[in-house]
């Protein structure tokens, strides 16, 4: 399903593209251009607007052969557009931005089926509908912001929900988290979360592939596939964190009206994740925190040094780590006190006080780095309002 035309297209046609960046078709065009796409960009719109680096046509029939088509047009027009593109323009990859399909009503589900049947008939790939697009090193085919700087060793994010993908990006970027790719699958009519995970597994390269995968799932349509490929990736050295939404009765109703998701038992999801080795998270902040931890080197021991200039947060962190089975051993370092403010504690947590400076923080970190009984450091450092 995931194919070369989707991942590395030589040409992209935006059906319903425009020069208005306040519309999805205009914003996705700008993001593709700003992302430095090296291929040819076509825009299909009866209202021509001059945008440097693009070729505009009034109708799909005027397009040459095109690898990837992004549809930002009403739902009712999508099946016909895909028919023309697939049969006449040799298009083999499609991203359907529009909503109004199976998540809405039976008529929408029928439109969705028509699209999938046509794409399947030419062995093509369909992302969506009801999604924000995808982001790779090759092309930034999202109609939203923020757009992270792509890092091959960052996280791969697969999300049923486009809005949630944005919130995860915002949360992760504020923590310094890096991203390798983003796949917003929407309704997952042909390609769902499990299918993208399968692609990551089957194409995994230990030298170049990202080792952290993040999932937001509203419907597990292929539990066996999810279990198999998640377990396989984890055996290859990957870490996977995931949110499964829509497990309560009310949540299931919300998910069904959002992406047409099918309800899953919470106990079944918990058992599946545990068996696969997936770390289950309850929200975006927890997911991006877990991802940030995954990006560090694996912790080999249990002894933690806490370095802070705020005593209360250090006490709470000590409790949290201790409850998690980690150790906060006492540190005896009278010589360290000579370089800190009077009253600073060096026992662990090491408290520099609110008057502690960045230079003092550096001295403490360097000191702890050379302690044989410390396996990791956790640093709390913000602004006490004095500097």
CATH class group of the largest domain: Alpha Beta
Overall mean pLDDT score?
Answer: 92
Main sheet properties: 7 strands, mixed
CATH architecture verdict of the largest domain: 3-Layer(aba) Sandwich
Range of helix content: 25-40%
> In CATH, what is the homologous superfamily of the largest domain?
Succinyl-CoA synthetase domains
Distance between the termini: 55 Å
What is the domain total for the residues?
Answer: 3
Number of helices: 13
Output the structural class: alpha/beta
Report the principal-axis shape: elongated
Q: Would you identify the regions where 5 or more consecutive residues have pLDDT less than 50? A: none
In order across it, which strands form the biggest sheet? 8-7-10-9-11-12-13
CATH topology of the largest domain: Rossmann fold
Q: How many strands appear in the DSSP assignment?
A: 16
Question: H/E series, N to C?
Answer: HEHEEEHEHEEEEHEHEHEHHEHEHHEHE
């Amino acid at each position: 399903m995931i194919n070369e035309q989707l991942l590395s297209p030589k040409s992209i046609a935006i059906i319903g593209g425009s020069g208005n960046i306040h519309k999805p078709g205009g914003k996705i065009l700008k993001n593709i251009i700003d992302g430095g796409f090296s291929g040819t960009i076509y825009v299909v719109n009866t209202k021509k607007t001059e945008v440097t680096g693009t070729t505009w046509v009034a109708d799909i029939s005027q397009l040459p052969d095109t690898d990837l088509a992004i549809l930002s047009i009403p739902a009712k027009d999508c099946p016909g557009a895909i028919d023309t593109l697939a049969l006449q323009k040799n298009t083999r990859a499609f991203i359907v931005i529009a909503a109004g399909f199976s998540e809405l009503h039976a008529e929408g589900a029928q439109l969705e089926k028509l699209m999938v049947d046509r794409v399947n008939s030419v062995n093509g790939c369909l992302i969506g509908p009801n999604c924000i697009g995808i982001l790779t090193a090759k092309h930034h085919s999202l109609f939203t912001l923020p757009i992270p700087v792509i890092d091959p060793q960052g996280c791969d994010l697969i999300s049923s929900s486009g809005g949630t993908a944005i919130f995860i990006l915002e949360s992760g970027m504020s923590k310094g988290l890096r991203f390798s790719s983003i796949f917003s699958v929407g309704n997952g009519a042909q390609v769902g979360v499990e299918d993208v995970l399968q692609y990551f597994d089957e194409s995994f390269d230990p030298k170049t592939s990202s080792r952290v995968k993040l999932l937001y799932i509203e419907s597990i349509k292929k539990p066996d596939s999810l279990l198999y490929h998640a377990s396989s990736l984890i055996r290859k050295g990957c870490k996977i964190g995931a949110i499964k939404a829509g497990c309560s009765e009310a949540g299931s109703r919300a998910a069904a009206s959002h992406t047409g998701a099918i309800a899953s038992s919470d106990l079944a999801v918990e058992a599946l994740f545990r068996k696969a080795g997936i770390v289950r998270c309850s929200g975006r902040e927890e997911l991006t925190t877990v991802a940030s931890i995954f990006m560090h080197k694996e912790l080999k021991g249990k002894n933690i040094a806490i370095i802070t200039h705020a005593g209360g947060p250090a006490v709470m962190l000590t409790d949290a780590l201790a409850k998690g089975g980690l150790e906060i051993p006492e540190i005896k370092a009278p010589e360290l006190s000579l370089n800190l403010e009077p009253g600073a504690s060096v026992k662990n947590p090491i408290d520099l006080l609110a008057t502690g400076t960045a230079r003092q923080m550096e001295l403490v970190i360097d000191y702890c780095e050379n302690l044989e009984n410390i396996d990791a450091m956790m640093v709390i450092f913000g602004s006490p309002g004095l500097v």
